[in-house]
Write a structure and sequence with these properties.
single chain; mainly alpha; 0% strand
Length: 165
Amino acid sequence: MDIVYYIMPLSDLTDWVSIGVDLVVGLMIGGVLAYFIPKRLNDSRSLKDFYISEIRDVKVEFNELCKQISIGKMNAVVMKETFKQLSIRLNDIQYSVNNHLKLDLNIVSFIESTQGFITSADEINEQYESKYLILASATKRELVKRQELFNRNVLSAIARINDVG
């Protein structure tokens, strides 16, 4: 009887210790999951939002450039420099997105092809020194087509960025 008398409290003590350890471990795991997982998801969302915002800004600037060219409010020198700056900016964004999010975006090529098209247009060469460029109707239509293509590809790029896990 004496042995049972000592064993019984020991088994109660180990049960309590086991419950205590389970509680501490459970709280630690819960704390880690509650803090680190949302933080990681939030950091990832913030990075995606940053990239999307930068790409949208370039889209807005590109569309404004196309508008200014189409309505004859741009000269050749400013136009070429603006295209160059947009290409540089979008190339940097694209490189960073591809590197950090492991994507293979190539939307800068649409700006570069539009720049090549516009700068090789006859009107540009004939009016290079003019205060404002006046485009032929056919050139304006092609510019609009290229602008639409760029915008569609930007939207696709944004969707791909959002889909990254």
